[in-house]
TrEMBL record:
<dbReference type="Pfam" id="PF00172">
    <property type="entry name" value="Zn_clus"/>
</dbReference>
<feature type="domain" description="Zn(2)-C6 fungal-type">
    <location>
        <begin position="12"/>
        <end position="44"/>
    </location>
</feature>
<keyword id="KW-0238">DNA-binding</keyword>
<protein>
    <recommendedName>
        <fullName>Zn(2)-C6 fungal-type domain-containing protein</fullName>
    </recommendedName>
</protein>
<keyword id="KW-0479">Metal-binding</keyword>
<dbReference type="GO" id="GO:0008270">
    <property type="term" value="F:zinc ion binding"/>
</dbReference>
<keyword id="KW-0539">Nucleus</keyword>
<keyword id="KW-0804">Transcription</keyword>
<dbReference type="GO" id="GO:0006351">
    <property type="term" value="P:DNA-templated transcription"/>
</dbReference>
<dbReference type="GO" id="GO:0000981">
    <property type="term" value="F:DNA-binding transcription factor activity, RNA polymerase II-specific"/>
</dbReference>
<dbReference type="Pfam" id="PF04082">
    <property type="entry name" value="Fungal_trans"/>
</dbReference>
<dbReference type="GO" id="GO:0003677">
    <property type="term" value="F:DNA binding"/>
</dbReference>
<dbReference type="InterPro" id="IPR001138">
    <property type="entry name" value="Zn2Cys6_DnaBD"/>
</dbReference>
<feature type="compositionally biased region" description="Polar residues">
    <location>
        <begin position="50"/>
        <end position="60"/>
    </location>
</feature>
<dbReference type="GO" id="GO:0005634">
    <property type="term" value="C:nucleus"/>
</dbReference>
<keyword id="KW-0805">Transcription regulation</keyword>
<dbReference type="InterPro" id="IPR036864">
    <property type="entry name" value="Zn2-C6_fun-type_DNA-bd_sf"/>
</dbReference>
Length: 684
């Protein structure tokens, strides 16, 4: 028996104390040091993960004070006991002659290589017919017979247990996800993945999955480390069985976590976030879901060969990061790089690689690629950087304009649905479907890629001709869409609000291509000024109509702030500066529309900015810009009064984070901001 001092070190054992001799019996000793013959230097604490309850409370309080989500299990909970067992287990793996001496080191990764993935026609093995099987065969990762992947540090075992622990909120997660698929026509992944929700709930009820027993953690990690094999005979209604139940994988959990976190901010599952603290609770829940879905990504980067579930997870966490961070965050740009990299690795950009897949999965991959492609152009435009996914290196076809329910239908029903398509893949039934909007935005984004490429070239007559050609082809493509998909100001109102909003966003995407083209042409000559003012006026009017429609939404409020900033703001700048120049010079502006309507629309837009200034975290920016626009309108309506803003007030804009803003008496600083972009697929 060993007595201990308060610092936990052994003082002396019972026999040595009786004999009154110095004790050298340093007990206990862990099995690892015994095998390595280092017992003289070992002291193994019997409960290495225990901590004082006051210390635990202090850590939790510190996390709350710093706004960090506390997803760690509480002291004394069943999951913590399982984690301690997991640590001891992974420290001395069974059936192993030599223990893994680095098993407690999170920086010591498993000794294995993931498959290479897609190899293109210029790869080093392209001359061989079996190039894929040569270096990236799934057989490189044989099925695991052990409880955990070999060499996996106990840190990642504990992290996986924390991920499973968040399933205690699965009732909220399931409700949010179901409501999202019920009301939103922009859910890229087919609704057939909803079959996974009851399967996961059943597993939670039967096995108490959220308590993180060692067996359940081992099962999920073992499944996640395997190649996701999808037989060509797999039916859409059976797809979920490949990653739920006894085949449960971390990727699908992270996918649902990310959707729940993103959609909770927009008002879904109202009964789960009641009272005045609802908005704060929603933000905390979103950050918690972001942290846990990001933890899933980190584990999968170590263990998981890239698969379709990985693409879904990357896409959803990218959208969620826009809420947790902001539009211009570098983290968002980095996540876009991860998404594009995994798309290329899986070969989603090469449609010729998908011939042996079930039709539902082939169509799902096309939709995933199209969604990632348009999002890439959106972020590239917003940040003014080169796009990461280029059509020059892709041959992915447009997804077919068919209903999602078709993928769970029988073969005869599927053939009948394919016969209802025209030669371009559009439905001849005149019905609104998710694939219709995906096809629209994908085609319009191909022109955005061309605009981004030319924007980096030096202005010249040749670039001007290229821009005019892009504008012409973009108009022709828009006019080739089925009539019911072409939004205009007199569009019929007897359609669901969500469909109406999707049509408006596609229309804004189309208009913004023209806006960018004419703004580039104006920099080379004033001949394009009239067209720039016309398209700016149309964009602003459409944004205001978008804001009116949001009031009809009961279940969901769309992200009107993003629409205002990314579309309304640039067009309002152009119009306000033109009116200001007219008031100062007395020269008429080259605008064929009604000047009074223009001023009225700008005034309404200012009221939206003022409202957002009172309710948004970026209230300083909205407050400053609303005042600047208001002063311009005052100057236009009373041209004899010169209205300027004092310098110190403009200097305060540096506090908002725009270091490049200099002192100015008008809207010149807005040219530096240049908030132009394309709305992300937040909800619609």
């Amino acid at each position: 028996m060993v007595s201990r001092r308060r610092n936990g070190k052994p003082a002396s054992c019972e026999p040595c104390r009786k004999d009154k001799v110095r004790c050298d019996h340093r007990l206990p000793v862990c099995s690892r040091c015994q095998k390595r013959r280092l017992t003289a230097h070992c002291f193994y604490h019997p409960a290495p993960l225990t901590r004082n309850s006051k210390q635990t409370q202090g850590v939790s309080r510190s996390r709350r004070e710093h706004g960090r989500p506390n997803i760690l299990p509480e002291e004394g909970s069943p999951i913590l006991r399982s984690l301690r067992a997991a640590t001891e287990y992974t420290s001395t793996p069974p059936d192993s002659e030599e223990p893994d001496v680095h098993s407690d080191d999170p920086f010591c990764l498993p000794d294995r290589s993931l498959p290479t993935g897609y190899l293109g026609p210029t790869s080093f093995v392209a001359a061989l017919e079996e190039d894929q099987e040569l270096v990236s065969s799934p057989s490189d990762l044989p099925p695991q017979d052990r409880a955990f992947p070999p060499g996996l540090p106990s840190y990642w075992v504990r992290k996986t247990a924390e991920i499973l622990y968040c399933l205690k909120d699965f009732s909220t997660i399931q409700q949010v996800v179901r409501e999202y698929y019920r009301i939103s026509p922009a859910a890229i992944v087919l609704p057939l993945v909803l079959h996974a929700l009851p399967a996961i709930q059943t597993m939670i009820d039967e096995t108490q999955l959220h308590k993180g027993s060692l067996d359940q953690v081992a099962l999920v990690l073992r499944n996640t480390s395997q190649v996701l094999q999808i037989p060509s005979t797999t039916k859409g209604s059976e797809f979920y069985e490949l990653f739920t139940g006894p085949n449960l994988r971390l990727e699908i959990l992270g996918f649902f976590y990310a959707i729940a976190g993103r959609m909770s901010v927009f008002g879904l599952a109202y009964d789960k976030f009641p009272g005045r603290g609802g908005p704060t609770t929603r933000q905390q829940f979103a950050r918690k879901m972001f942290a846990v879905s990001d933890a899933v990504l980190q584990v999968c980067k170590i263990l998981t060969p890239v698969n379709d579930l990985t693409i879904w997870l990357l896409y959803e966490t990218l959208l969620l990061s826009n809420i947790v961070h902001n539009d211009s965050s570098s983290a968002r740009w980095h996540r876009l790089g991860d998404l594009s990299t995994h798309i290329f690795e899986l070969g989603l950009h090469r449609d010729s690689q998908q011939n042996d897949l079930p039709i539902f999965l082939r169509e799902l991959r096309r939709r995933s690629f199209a969604a990632a492609y348009q999002l890439d152009k959106s972020i590239a435009t917003f940040l003014g950087r080169p796009p990461r996914i280029s059509m020059r290196h892709s041959d992915c076809r447009l997804p077919l304009d068919i209903s999602e329910s078709t993928f769970e239908a029988s073969e005869p029903e599927l053939e009948l649905a394919l016969q209802c398509l025209d030669n371009r893949g559009w439905s001849t039934q005149g019905v609104f479907q998710l694939s219709s909007f995906i096809r629209q935005r994908f085609l319009l984004s191909t022109f955005r890629e061309e605009i981004l490429e030319i924007s980096s070239e030096r202005p010249s007559p040749e670039t001007a001709d290229k821009l005019r050609d892009i504008s012409l082809r973009c108009h022709q493509t828009w006019n080739s869409f089925p009539k019911y998909l072409r939004y205009h100001s007199d569009y019929e109102d007897n359609i669901p609000v969500t469909i109406h909003l999707m049509l408006m966003i596609s229309y804004l995407t189309y208009l913004y291509n023209d806006f960018l083209i004419h703004r580039l042409l104006v920099s080379q000559g004033q001949e394009a000024q009239t067209a720039l003012l016309d398209v700016s006026s149309t964009i602003l009017a459409t944004v205001l109509a978008f804001g009116t429609l949001r009031e009809d939404m009961v279940d969901l409020r769309p992200d009107f702030k993003a629409t205002s900033l990314l579309y309304g703001f640039p067009s309002a700048i152009v119009l306000a500066k033109a009116l200001q120049n007219q008031a100062r010079t007395g020269k008429p502006i080259p605008y064929e529309g009604s000047r009074s309507v223009l001023i009225r629309n700008l005034s309404v837009f200012i009221s939206h900015l003022e409202l957002m200034a009172r309710s948004d975290t970026s209230h300083e920016l909205f407050d400053r810009t609303s005042k600047l626009f208001s002063n311009i309108i005052d100057e236009v309506l009373e041209p004899r009064v010169a209205v300027t803003l004092p310098g110190p007030e403009l200097d305060s804009l540096a506090d908002i984070g725009f270091d490049m803003i200099a002192e100015s008496e008008d809207l010149n600083f807005l040219d530096i901001l240049d908030l132009g972009g394309s709305i992300d697929q937040m909800i619609f």
